[in-house]
Amino acid sequence: MKITIHDEFIKLGQAMKLSGLVNEGAEAKQVINDGEVFVNGEVEIRRGRKLREGDIFTWKGQEVQIIKSEL
Fold this sequence. Notes:
By secondary structure, the chain is α+β, with helices and mostly antiparallel strands. The chain is 24% helix and 34% strand.
């Protein structure tokens, strides 16, 4: 799956919501704090981790790549 951002970065918790993997920020916070989310293959426990174009995060086998809009 891919999500498109229009700014330089998106925070991990926001990206999880935008991708539809979680419904609420509280849910994203919980799974990130529990060490269930990987960014570029490494466990990430910071909900505010800045994701930029080309970064990939994974949760429960779902892989999401960050794409930057051309606009």
